[in-house]
Every structure is written in C-alpha cells, then in structure tokens.
UniProtKB/TrEMBL annotation:
<keyword id="KW-0732">Signal</keyword>
<feature type="signal peptide">
    <location>
        <begin position="1"/>
        <end position="20"/>
    </location>
</feature>
<feature type="domain" description="Peptidase M13 C-terminal">
    <location>
        <begin position="483"/>
        <end position="684"/>
    </location>
</feature>
<keyword id="KW-0482">Metalloprotease</keyword>
<dbReference type="Pfam" id="PF05649">
    <property type="entry name" value="Peptidase_M13_N"/>
</dbReference>
<dbReference type="InterPro" id="IPR024079">
    <property type="entry name" value="MetalloPept_cat_dom_sf"/>
</dbReference>
<keyword id="KW-0378">Hydrolase</keyword>
<keyword id="KW-0862">Zinc</keyword>
<dbReference type="InterPro" id="IPR042089">
    <property type="entry name" value="Peptidase_M13_dom_2"/>
</dbReference>
<keyword id="KW-0479">Metal-binding</keyword>
<dbReference type="InterPro" id="IPR018497">
    <property type="entry name" value="Peptidase_M13_C"/>
</dbReference>
<keyword id="KW-0645">Protease</keyword>
<protein>
    <submittedName>
        <fullName>Endothelin-converting enzyme Metallo peptidase. MEROPS family M13</fullName>
    </submittedName>
</protein>
<dbReference type="GO" id="GO:0046872">
    <property type="term" value="F:metal ion binding"/>
</dbReference>
<dbReference type="Pfam" id="PF01431">
    <property type="entry name" value="Peptidase_M13"/>
</dbReference>
<dbReference type="InterPro" id="IPR008753">
    <property type="entry name" value="Peptidase_M13_N"/>
</dbReference>
<dbReference type="InterPro" id="IPR000718">
    <property type="entry name" value="Peptidase_M13"/>
</dbReference>
C-alpha cells in the first residue's frame, strides 16, 4: 500500500492525483491533421483560434476541447493528466483481469494475490451477503474499550488496519539527520477536506455540514448503532474541536516550523492526558527515544479533547472512522451511502465508478509493484527510459547554466546550489528493486480482511526501517501512476513510466514539444529542490541553511512577488487562488518552464529550429507546455481543490509562468494591453 505524505518533509508531487461520430465530410483535411499530430505532437483539434494567444494562451491552445468535451459522469475532472490516468487504468485492467481469469495459480504467488484480491472485490454477491459482518470483530473491540488509555491505544491500532485516527504516525527520514529514519506524527482526525469546512459560515459550507451530519446518521443507522442522530452529532462535535487545533495548510508547509523533535519520555509534558506509552507500544514506536511532532499545538488541542470527551463518545468516533474507512468494501447500502455524500455532494460526481474500475484501483493501491512489473514489460520500452535519462541530464545542465547567470545570487550560494543540483538522483520508469509481498495473505472471499492485512503489512514494513540504512531504492509511486515527485530528504526526482506518454512525452514528436511537455515536468520536479521549502534542504537532504542572508532575502522577495501574482488570479467571482498555499508548486511550474526552455535552446547547439506546421520551435515549445495543463473540473471539486490543493488550477498553471517569461512575449508578439502582458518590472524570474 503506497503512501505519499503531502508536505515539504516528504515529497512534492506534480498533481494531487469514446463516442460515436458522424463520418467526416473532409477526409483529406482530417488525414492531414492526423499527420500533423504525428509530426509535431501538437493537438491542433483542441485549438480555439477565436482566442488570441496574447490574451489567454491556455484557452487558445485548449479552447475547443474546453468547449466541447464533457467530464464523464463518474469523474469530477477531465484533461491531460486525468485522461492519461484512464488509459493507464485500462492498461492495468487487462493485466489484472488476465491474472484473475487464470485457474490454479500457485497459492501465495504474486499472481494469485492479484487475482484473488480483484475477485474478492468483484464478488458483489459475497460482499452483499456478508453485509457488516467483516467489521464486527473490530466493532466488538471498540465496544469493549473501557478507559482513556484504551481509546488512545485504539487510535494506534486503527491506523495499522487502515482506518482513521486523530494521530497520523509514520516513518520517514529525519530531516536534520538524513542518514537515519525517525518516527513522526502529523495532525489528523477530520472527515471533511480541511479545518475551515467546520467553521466557515458561507451557505455552501453550512449545507455541507448538514449533509455530513445526515450522512453519518444514515451510516450509523445502517450499522445498527443506537441513537444514530446523536451519534452523528457526537462525531461532528469531536471533529470540530480537533479542527480548531489544526494548523492551516499554509502553516503546515513550513519545514522549519514542522520540525519539532521530542524525547518520547517527555511527551507527557506536551500532552498529559494522552497515554503515550499505550499509544507508542501499540503503534510500534516504543523502541525509539525520540519522535518528530509536526504540529505540536495540535497535540495540545487533542490532549484537551481527550480529557474532555467521555470514553463512550470516543467509541462512537472510532466506530465512525472504521465504518467510513471500509464503507466501499461493505454491502451495497454502505457503498452507495458513502458515494452519495463524499463523491456526489462534496465533489459533484454524478455517478459511481463502475465496480471494475474501483477494483483495478484497489489492486494498484495494495499490490502496485506486482502489477507495475507487468505494466513496464508491456508499456515502457527501453528506448523511452534512455531518452528520458538524456532529457534529465540536459535539464540538469540547463539548470546549472541558469544558476551561473543569476544576477541576484552570490557566487558563494551558487556553488552550494550547483552542488545540490549535481547530487539530484533521478529515478525513471520503475524501481530497480521491487516490493516483496510474500508476507501478505490474500483470500478470494475476504475483501475487508485482505485490505486490513495489506495495511498492517505496510505499517510493519515501515517499522522495519527504524535503525536500518536508508532505503534509497524505494519508490513512493507505482510505475502505472501518472504523476511525478521530488523528495527533499532524499534529494531525488522520480518519474513513473505511465507519465512518459503523450501529451507529456512523445517518442515520435519533435524536441520542442517534448521539452515543453516532459522537459517542463522534469524542470518542475528539479525546481522543487529550489522552491520556498525544498531550498531549505542541502544536497544530502538535511534541513540546513546553505544560503547567505542577503541571497535568502532576495529569493524570498521574488517568492513574495509570485504570491501576490497568484493571489490575483480569480477562479470564481468569490474565489481566488491562494498564493501562499500554492507558492512551492508555482515556483516549480515557473522553474520548469524556464529551465526546459533553456534546455531546448541549448539542444539546438546554435542551429535554427525547423519550422513545422508553420510554427517556430519556440512557439511549439510553448504550445507543448500549454497542452499538458488541459483540464476542467466540476465546480464543487474545483472549489475543494482551491481550498486544499497546493497546485494552482490548470488555467493558471499554464498562463502564470508564461506571463513571467520574456521569451514567450517575443514568440507570440505579446504587447502592453494584452491580457497576458506584465510590465517587465513585475515579471518574476527566480531560477
């Protein structure tokens, strides 16, 4: 079960995750358009030439698609990332269903586990017959709790079986000693997307809270819990109190403020009503003398909630967390009710995904590298990996040149920056060492048990890291994942195989579009090593300042200008982008586009770029950039993203960096008065 924690401590990811037609009347023109796509990698059919690129480049490149495409009823978004994820899922479906259809697979083999896990999810007759029965042993355990120590111990146990808890315990590299693993705790315990959902008095949030209460009441009713309405109010009251102590997402981005190391023997001074001995023994952290608490003031809040909440009310809360975590694996009535609130009401999703889609996702989540091995063999040619290695090194060279050319950075800091750049470890396609699932038992008629055992094994494997060497071979995304990430504590950039496809990477397209696509993605992930948080880590992954004071001030001044720029982007009449929340990703996007452009120009070695489809090389580069951000969202889903996602919406990810790049102005003749225009003194250049 792969887990990727959000936040500069662990990783910065690139993203937060046919129909019939009439016969064409102009077959020759269509054939020519197809040939254009093959030669340039540009999707001309998506263009809207009624929009001037100088005013809205994103809509110029993607406007016809935006007008004519529809978000599938079982999704809340669509676009380049999301459509490629659908393709990857379809590819994985073939792999999974092929294994599931094979008879007499060797018991305990990886193939048997994939097939039986999928079968256990797809056997709806069995799932419906069992109803709530698979959870009854855990529900009985909760019911037997008779003390606050028992409550706190169950916080720990709940996490080990994949259910919610007010404390998110995890193992990661110690940010100030990158050669050791440390235990960490992150704030948790909320069902709604963010703390503000519990307090905001706008009508939309009031309605969501009412819907959440109604949903919990229905779930408790289905589970046969006495006084379901009161039980729902109890959970809401506890979560609201927890939310009061949660740091905002902007506060939780701060790597330095999050690094708070405590001796485990002294945790009672921070929170005296939490039985830390019971918690750490159950979670497996009792062997460690210290622990890193990311949000200490939240722990103080939790301490008060533990003290002021009865054991009976905590049992209601724990019951809710178990029900909501496993509702999608219970009988139809639980599954449907979970969908109605969390998917339909909260995010605007119109219909539940077909069961096979969810089954394939379940297998990828729990046996991802088993599937990944087959996926790589079928869908990731060796030449693609070789080409990616070349592109990564070209981007690295361009970044070094860019650092040398920075006017605002001193020679002393430039040396440190280039040392860090040289130390980047790129991982491309798939891991060199695959995950071992031999200890996992999967049974074809035990869906809930399968998922619980998978969660427990993942937790056990995390604990095994303590005291051992850093596992630099480990990946936190599977090969079939359409995404990429940078880890500051490992100083590594990771590109799974599935993202290395059009429109991001096209082996048959010209270099300009590939540099604008996957080149910018590479540059984006490199950029996270030098964003407002990643820049705090040195070449070895330690949270250690390597900047002169004047250089740091100059860097922060540029970051503040970027915050102000993105704060001005309007998503809806009543909603703007949060420039502080998205700063790291916006620096990544700006750096990605800037460095990829420089790398593309360097690749020409002084020769003129060819004109293809009446477009210059520079124009094709920027079009390649614009088309990878193609995307549209359900309104509810987009509002949730703006509140919680450190990435800006697609429109601004495409246009924002270009408004700061003088090279874009000359490529598309952008002048004062055009909507994309920024005065030279307001254009932000960081790297």
């Amino acid at each position: 079960m792969k887990r990727l924690f959000i936040g500069g401590l662990c990783a910065s990811a690139l993203v937060m995750t046919g129909c019939a037609q009439n016969e064409p009347s102009q077959p020759t023109a269509v054939a020519e358009a197809v040939q254009q796509q093959l030669s340039s990698g540009i999707e001309f059919a998506n263009f809207d030439t009624t929009v001037r690129p100088q005013d809205d480049f994103y809509s110029y490149v993607n406007g016809t698609w935006l007008k004519t495409s529809e978000i599938p009823a079982d999704r809340t978004s669509s676009g380049a990332f999301y459509d490629l994820r659908e393709k990857a899922r379809d590819d994985v479906k073939v792999i999974v269903e092929d294994l599931a259809a094979k008879p007499n697979l060797k018991a305990g083999s990886d193939e048997q586990k994939v097939g039986d896990l999928y079968r256990s999810f797809m056997d709806t007759d069995k799932v419906n017959q069992l109803g709530l029965a698979p959870l009854k042993p855990e529900l009985a355990t909760i019911d037997a709790i008779d003390s606050k120590a028992g409550v706190v111990a169950y916080f720990a146990h709940s996490q080990t079986i994949g259910a919610g808890t007010p404390l998110a315990f995890y193992i990661n590299v110690d940010a100030k000693d990158s050669e050791r693993y440390a235990t960490h705790i992150w704030q948790a315990g909320l069902s709604l997307p963010d703390r503000d959902y519990y307090f905001n008095d706008e009508a939309r949030f009031v309605k969501l809270r009412e819907g959440f209460l109604a949903h919990m009441e229905k779930m408790f009713t289905l589970a046969g819990v006495a006084n379901p309405a009161e039980s729902a109010k109890t959970v809401m009251a506890i979560e609201t109190e927890l939310a009061k102590g949660h740091w905002t997402r902007v506060e939780s981005r701060d790597s330095e403020k999050r690094y708070n190391k405590y001796q485990t023997a002294e945790l009672s001074k921070l929170a005296s009503h939490i039985d830390w001995a019971a918690y750490l023994k159950t979670i497996g952290g009792d062997s460690q003398s210290d622990i890193i608490i990311n949000q200490p003031s939240y722990i103080e809040t939790l301490d008060k909630v533990v003290a002021n909440t009865s054991v009976s009310d905590w049992k209601t809360y724990l019951t809710w967390n178990l029900l909501t975590a496993y509702s999608g694996m219970l009988s139809q009535e639980f599954d449907s009710e979970n969908f109605e609130f969390f998917a339909r009401q909260l995010n605007g999703q119109e219909q539940q995904k077909e069961r096979w889609k969810r089954g394939v996702a379940l297998v990828s989540d729990n046996l991802g590298e088993v599937v990944g091995k087959v996926y790589v063999d079928k869908h990731f040619p060796a030449e693609a990996k070789a080409r990616m290695k070349e592109l990564v090194e070209n981007l690295r060279k361009a970044y070094a040149v860019s650092i040398d050319q920075l006017e605002w950075m001193s020679p002393e800091t430039k040396v440190k920056a280039k040392e860090k750049l040289a130390a980047f470890t790129p991982k491309i396609g798939y891991p060199d060492q695959w995950e071992d699932y031999s200890a996992l038992t999967i049974e074809s008629d035990d869906l809930v048990g399968n998922v619980m055992r998978s969660a427990t094994l993942a937790h056990t494997k995390d604990l095994e890291k303590l005291g051992g060497p850093i596992r630099r071979y480990e990946w936190h995304m599977t090969p079939q994942t359409v995404n990429a990430y940078y880890s500051p504590v490992m100083n590594e950039i990771v590109f799974p195989a599935a993202i290395l496809q059009p429109p991001f990477f096209n082996m048959n397209a010209d270099d300009a579009v590939n540099y604008g696509g996957i080149g910018a993605v590479i540059g984006h992930e490199m950029g996270h090593g030098f964003d407002d948080q990643g820049s705090r880590y040195d070449k070895d992954g330690n949270l250690k300042n390597w900047w002169t004071e004047s250089d740091l001030q100059a860097f922060q001044k540029r970051g503040s200008a970027l915050v102000a720029q993105y704060d001005g982007y309007q998503v809806f009449d009543d909603l703007h982008v949060n420039g502080k929340l998205t700063l790291g990703e916006n620096i990544g996007d700006l750096s990605g586009a800037t460095i990829a452009y420089k790398a593309y120009k360097m690749s020409l070695e002084g020769k003129p770029a060819p004109i293809i489809d009446d477009l210059s090389g520079d124009q094709r580069f920027f079009i390649g950039w614009g088309q990878i951000w193609r995307g549209k969202y359900k309104e509810q889903a987009l509002r949730n993203r703006v509140a919680t996602d450190p990435h800006s919406p697609s429109h601004f990810r495409a246009n924002g960096p270009l408004s700061n790049m003088t090279e874009f102005y000359s490529s598309f003749d952008v002048k004062e008065g055009d909507a994309m225009y920024l005065p030279a003194e307001k254009r932000v250049k960081i790297w």
